[in-house]
Design a protein that fits this description.
The complex is a heterodimer of chains A (98) and B (305).
Chain A lengths: L1 E5 L5 E6 L2 E6 L4 E5 L1 H12 L2 E2 H12 L5 H16 L3 E5 H5 L1
Antiparallel strand pairs in A: 1-5, 1-6, 2-3, 3-4
Chain B lengths: L7 H9 L3 E5 L2 E6 L4 H9 L14 E7 L10 E5 L9 E2 L3 H16 L4 E10 L2 E6 L6 H9 L4 E4 L2 E5 L4 E3 L5 E4 L1 H9 L9 E4 L2 E6 L3 H5 L7 E9 L6 E4 L2 H11 L3 H4 L1 H13 L1 E7 L2 H16 L1
Parallel strand pairs in B: 2-3, 7-14, 14-16
Antiparallel strand pairs in B: 1-2, 3-4, 4-5, 6-7, 6-8, 6-9, 9-10, 11-13, 12-13, 15-16
Helix pairs in contact in B: 7-9
The chains are: A alpha+beta (98), B alpha+beta (305).
Chain lengths: 98, 305
């Protein structure tokens, strides 16, 4: 299983208004607008590198919902998008152990 | 001393020699031109701008010149330049003033990157800074002219200048450019408005310029904190519709509307965030200018309370 962590080259700036958030990615100069799920995923990873199971567990606790396929798929899709944007990186567990 | 304190002859002498150095908001502009017909228009429309000494350092040095000596008498054409090659094609002398205005705007838009530049009209009343960002054709300048003649102070009809360090709005009271039907709309709405003659056949159609009221120029060094953002859109026959916009959407609309958001990067991000944080944001669809001004007055009154 992959471990997800913030791209070490990235410096991020957050602005929050209630459940609305904007994120400035210093390296690319891009501004992103995130829904509460996206914010939570990134903030969880910012706090601790995590695998998908760990993320699902923490986010289910935060949003008070059950861990099902729908949640896993949403989190996976968000991670893939963050990866494309250069916000996060994934690393195989084996690589970390090695 | 203001431009109106110069005689027409003195103004012409400056324009053809050292240049007319005048202040507009934070900028010092030096204008040179041998094109005599424009002097009378400038004497009238630039009347309230302060005249500065020719010895200072200019922000912009603009020139309106004859495009060729042979074309000076037969269908004369003029050329706008600003310290370099002409950025636009030459135009008939009858369109010299709109070209000078657009050219000066172009200078500001391409160089004033110490400010965040919103593509927005900005006005102020009783300490309430109102930003009106809009796409071309959405009635931004018309609404700005109407508000300016309804006890609001003109900051700009085109450039929402924001000081990135503290997100304060900076006045830049240039002439308000009205196009096509808007010219008669403002003549009817504000008979006291001081308009230039109409210039026909420009690439934007018929254009006329409104002279900024004296008070807006006298107070052009007084910034204001933004309190209200309204995204206006004129739509023929539409009933007035005012809707609140959430802050993340307001942020996105404001950032994408800026001329130089990407240039300023994190400074711009922080400035836009601060503006959005401090302002209520609305979309406004309207067809009746009087109703729109009244609705804005009420919003501003409530925003200030």
């Amino acid at each position: 299983m992959h471990i997800w962590h913030l791209n070490s080259n990235q410096s991020l700036r957050w602005k929050h208004w209630g459940d609305q958030s904007a994120l400035y990615q210093v390296a690319s100069g891009e501004t992103h607008f995130l829904n509460p799920l996206g914010v939570s995923i990134l903030m969880q990873i910012e706090a601790n590198s995590s695998n998908l199971d760990q993320l699902c567990e923490r986010i289910a606790t935060e949003f008070d919902c059950s861990i099902d396929d729908d949640l896993r798929n949403q989190i996976t899709a968000s991670l893939m998008r963050f990866d494309e944007l250069g916000l996060v990186q994934r690393q195989r567990n084996d690589d970390l152990v090695a | 001393m203001n431009v109106s304190d110069l005689t027409l002859l003195e103004l012409r002498q400056r324009l053809t020699t050292v240049g007319l150095c005048f202040g507009c908001g934070p900028f010092r502009i030096r204008l040179r031109t041998p094109v005599a017909p424009i002097a009378e228009l400038l004497h009238d429309l630039y009347a309230h701008y302060p005249v500065y000494s020719e010895l200072g350092i200019d922000d912009y040095r603009v020139k309106l010149d004859w495009a060729s000596w042979s074309r000076r008498w037969i269908r004369p054409i003029v050329r706008f330049t600003a310290d370099g090659p002409a950025p636009f094609t030459d135009v008939p002398v009858l369109r010299a003033l709109p070209t000078l205005e657009w050219g000066t705007n172009w200078c500001i838009a391409t160089r004033a990157h110490h400010f965040l530049m919103l593509h927005a009209a900005v006005v102020e009343r009783n300490g309430c800074g109102l930003i009106l960002p809009a796409l071309p054709g959405h009635g931004k300048s018309t609404l700005c002219a109407a508000l300016t003649h309804s006890n609001w102070r003109l900051f700009s009809d085109e450039f929402g200048l924001v000081r990135p360090e503290d997100a304060m709005l900076i006045p830049l009271p240039r002439l308000i450019s009205l196009k096509n039907q808007s010219i008669d709309v403002i003549r009817a709405f504000a008979p006291s408005a001081h308009l230039s003659p109409s210039f026909y056949g420009t690439h934007k159609g018929t254009v006329a310029h409104v002279r900024p009221p004296l008070n807006s120029i006298v107070r052009m060094n007084e910034p204001v904190k933004p309190s209200l953002i309204i995204f206006p859109r004129w739509q023929s026959g539409a009933l007035l519709n005012l809707e609140s916009i959430p802050k993340d959407r307001a942020f996105m609309l404001l950032a994408t509307n800026a001329f130089n958001y990407e240039v300023l990067g994190e400074l711009a991000f922080n400035a836009v965030a601060k503006i959005v944080q401090n302002c209520d944001s609305y979309s406004l669809v309207y067809s009746d200018l009087t109703q729109a001004v009244q609705a804005i007055d009420e919003l501003a009154h409530n925003a200030h309370d």
